[in-house]
Amino acid sequence: MAPSAPSINSTMSSRMATPRPSSYRYKSEKRGMTYNIMLVGQSGLGRRTFLNTLCEREVISPPEAPNPETANIADPMRFDTYEVNIEEEGTRISMTVIDTPGFGDGLDNTECFKQLQDYIEAQFDEVLVEESRIKRNRRYRDHRIHTLIYFITPTGHSLRELDIELIKRLGEYVNIIPVIGRADSLTVEELATFKQNVMRDIDYYKLPLYNFCWDESDSEALKENREIMDYTPFSVVTCDEVLDNEFGAVRVRRYPWGSIEIDDEGQCDFALLRYILLNSHIADLINYTEDVLYENYRTKKLEVGGFGEGEGEGEEENDEDDEVLGAKNE
Amino acid sequence: MSASPNDTQDYVGFDTITQQMERKFLKRGFNFNVILVGESGMGKSTLINSIFASHLIDTQGRRAAQEVIRKTTEISPVTQTLEENGVRVKLTIVDTPGYSDQCNNEGCWIPVIKYIKDQHAAYLERELKPLRDRVIVDTRIHACLYFLNPGSRGLRPLDVEVLKRLTEVTNVIPIIAKSDSMTIEERTAFKRRIKEELAFHRIVVFPYPSDEDTEEDRVLNASIRELIPFAVVGSEEVIEVNGKLVRGRRHGWGVINIFDETHSDFVHLRNFMLRTHLSDLVEVTAQRHYEQFRTSQLRQIKELRAQQAAAAATGGAPPMPSQAPPQAPMASGVMHQPMTQA
């Protein structure tokens, strides 16, 4: 089904519910929501500009010109953290974005998956430990990853081995939303075919993506969610340039044969994706992470390893505390 | 000298050799072999089909979910004969599906380098036969189109590894095939970085400077080197633009005409490969890459023989397998032995 321009109507904004109160998370109107996103994808697919365009300002500055000497050296994958405060339709979001430059850029990339898994699990472990304390830290900041945005290369064919492995390995720990980076290299027909092929691969390999329709209780929302899911994977084109025309400030990418407006829903799915990430589904993504993904992890961990209870002080986080509490850290 | 040279008795007429050679050439036709190296989805098959204006090869990219993901690089040659104004070319396009497509790409270049060297080896074998063909079948690779990833900031580690090896055995032409997702500024910056990196790592791509170059050649080659890597867009589709039919790509925000020089370097690449440097590509393969291969092979054989002779003289180990029939001392047994490094 060829994607037509999405109609983002007002009923979507009514879906934005406040997150369910959690006895664990300390919530403050002033502080806003805590939201953690991870960006994963090979270099050259637009992760950095995506973040800047999403936040409407330069969060990650352009990297310095690479030294020709290091062209043959693959940097190991690293985790770069950026803190951004956004205000979206009256709600303040305290967002942490973790970029992962180096993913998939080396000759042998098989280690990348384990590194990502370890990182995500480490955030779960921190919460597990914190939860088990006798006296919990009121100011504890939750670092669990709520969304992983995965950038797919626009080959026009279907998923590559790297893509399949990543989603397979990480889908049970984090909500994965696939996007097509540099989608402006595909024509309208090519994009439609590519999306179809990708979704067929997702079905065939049973790859665990974030299911927009996981909550089936609200039938109206379900209908909208099904429509949203039809756009998966989301085509993304991002840029650093802002142009002033008669309609105001417009974000564009200019080519000799025309210009693409990033926010035009008929030309790419960026606007829709931004709405999903920061508006309509932010609560869902957080809730699903806490109520399902984390809980599954916790259950598995406790059945296997054993986090026990014990005496001890609460506020300081030090090894002595963990020992007293009987927590087994790997 | 008089105005019409054909009228004087002093006119010898050996200048007609060019026409004589042309007639011979037309009769015989020639071989042209191109290998495409790049990960799947880079636009390799579309580009080569666009350059030759014929559907020569199908894309080998994985489309259906049931298609298995390739575990290694495969070598997939397709041969066709094209004709233009009486000139026939036997064109072989070698695709390399699976290259750089896995999570672990260590060694993915080995089948490619091996294939190129094997063609040199096959030619050497035919050349060394005591009774050889009048015209030796030439399967040697004359041009390697190396596809770079648009959007990367420069060469990737894999590119550096592979380009170093490829440039030692064949003529390499670096290309950005799907350059329609790069703005002009991005392209310019990318080209500049690639050139810096190639220079730093001493990777020498075609065209090579030569002492025999005329001033005209030097100017032309300089302008080609400016363009490298060629930022091209390929298309097998014909679309309508302002009432005209052109080969292009239709995006929601504009139409790309692949023959428009402000849109892409396609015309420059095509002219370079086929209209100005085609015979160079063939000749340089023979004179430079093949000769290098031949020299090193024959040296190795000579050394091997010396070792065998020394071993036999000391009455030591039995000689290495060179039980080739007397007429063809360079039979395959010995030939292919030294040739397994990539």
Quick one: overall form of chain A?
A: globular
Q: Helical residue percent of chain A?
A: 25-40%
Distance between the termini of chain A: 47 Å
- Tell me the major beta sheet of chain B: 6 strands, mixed
Query: Please, what is the oligomeric state?
Result: heterodimer
What is the CATH class designation of chain A? Alpha Beta
User: What is the helical fraction of chain B, as a range of percent?
Assistant: 25-40%
Indicate the structural class of chain B. alpha/beta
* CATH A-level architecture of chain A: 3-Layer(aba) Sandwich
Biggest interface, CB < 8 A: A-B, 53 and 53 residues
* Rg calculated over all Cα atoms of chain A: 21 Å
Low-confidence stretches of chain A: 1-29, 308-330
- Compute the number of helices of chain A: 9
Number of helices of chain B: 9
Order of helices and strands of chain A: HEHEEHEHEHHEEEEHHH
The average pLDDT score of chain B comes to 86
- Determine the CATH superfamily of chain A: P-loop containing nucleotide triphosphate hydrolases
Explain what the structure shows.
The complex is a heterodimer of chains A (330) and B (342). Chain A has a single domain, classed as Rossmann fold (3-Layer(aba) Sandwich). Chain A has 9 helices and 9 strands. Chain A has helices at residues 10-13, 47-55, 111-132, 161-170, 188-204, 219-229, 270-280, 282-304, 319-325, and strands spanning 33-40, 80-88, 91-99, 147-152, 176-180, 234-235, 242-245, 248-255, 258-261. Chain A has a 6-stranded mixed beta sheet with strand order 2-3-1-4-5-6, sandwiched between helices. The relative contact order of chain A is 0.16. Chain B is α/β, with parallel strands linked by helices. In chain B, helix 7 (266-276) packs across helix 8. Chain B is globular. Classes of the chains: A alpha/beta (330), B alpha/beta (342). Chains A and B meet through helix 4, helix 5, strand 8 and strand 9 of A and helix 4, helix 5, strand 8 and strand 9 of B.
